[in-house]
Amino acid sequence: MTSASPAALAAAPTGQTDPAARRRLERLWRRGVEFLGCRHAILGGAMTWVSERNLVAAISNGGGFGVLASGAMPPDVLRAEIRATRALTAQPFGVNLITMHPRLAELVEICLEERIGHVVLAGGLPQSATIARLKEGGAKVLCFAPALPFAKKLVRIGADALILEGTEAGGHIGPVSTAVLAQEILPEMAHVVPVFIAGGIGRGDAIVTALEAGASGVQIGTRFVCATESVAHPRFKQAFIRAAARDAVASVQLDPRFPVIPVRALQNEGGRRFAELQRDVIARYDRGEITLKEGQLEIEHFWAGALRRAVVEGDVETGSLMAGQSVGMVTREQPVAEILAELVAQAEAAIALRMSRAEA
User: Do residues 10 and 74 share a domain?
Assistant: First the structure.
């Protein structure tokens, strides 16, 4: 065991942490590594317009597990993206499918025809028939569990693994924090299926905390947005680099008559206009100038195309800057391999520090 000081251990770069710490990390996430078939049990969070062939392949090539974000892709586009990703990596990767997609059944068949080994179902509770079809075709199925009853049901209908994503995450979020979800679900489910923790994971220290609590691995999205291989617009990346954790805020619903699906994003002019729109719609409805349905649709359609405008076109003023609270840990543009190496080194250093303290 090393005799280095705790401070030195915490700051140790890749390759300089205690070999015992590396072995312990390998033991802690062995189940996740074996389930995914990669070197590090780190799933790349599927981010629409960001998690495409280049970033996904880079994550898998770096030892993590890249996941394609299919978003609203039609079947032929998804097939082309899968094949383009496979041309860039010989390592395994997965596909994220949105359960509300009108052509979900066709997308499932594309994944099976293209021999995708892991499919992440997102955007709502999937139907048991969807899970059954994927498993029948040889794919492993991962599902998001927002609460313990859902976790139990998902496993009962065939989910092979669970992802617990807390409200700290970017994009569409639930109301419960990562730490609370982990406490609620891990003790009950971690021995049943592999469980991956997501939302607010930005350093290796947090990875170790999740693993020691019983998780098999983690999912990380925001840290990869500013990867060199990410095709996100330079202005989009700069917004992330400049942002602090407190800048990633959840959208606010002003009136329960006009539901707003919570989305965590960097606050900008678009966010302020959205709040103004809600106030205007509420006032017009109360005056009888519009129907409830008209008002709801107006609010619902406000952000249509906003994420693409931000990520692809660089509209950081009125576009949607979806980001998790770990955005404060994004300080520069880095190659994916460097980000992964940094996370692993931090995890090993955190384990070595705990070992050192236990011996004191």
Answer: yes
CA separation for the pair 12, 15 (Å, rounded): 8
Domain region containing 67: 6-232+330-359
Task: Domain count for the chain, please give it.
Answer: 2
- So what's the pLDDT on residue 359? 78
Q: Do residues 49 and 96 share a domain? A: yes
Side-by-side strand order, sheet with 248-250:
171-172, 263-266, 248-250
What the block records as the tokens of 37 is 């078939």
Q: What is the mean pLDDT of the chain?
A: 94
Mean pLDDT of 280-291: 96
Judgement on whether residues 346 and 282 belong to the same structural domain of the protein: no
CA angle 216, 167, 100 (to 5 degrees): 85
Burial class of residue 133 (count of CB atoms within 10 Å of its CB; 0-12, 13-18, 19+): middle
Please indicate, yes or no, whether residues 187 and 72 belong to a single structural domain of this protein: yes
pLDDT digits (tens, 9 = 90+) for 64-91: 999 999 999 999 999 999 999 999 999 9
**Angstrom distance (rounded) from CA 84 to CA 291:** 46
**DSSP designation for 126:** P
pLDDT for 17 equals: 67
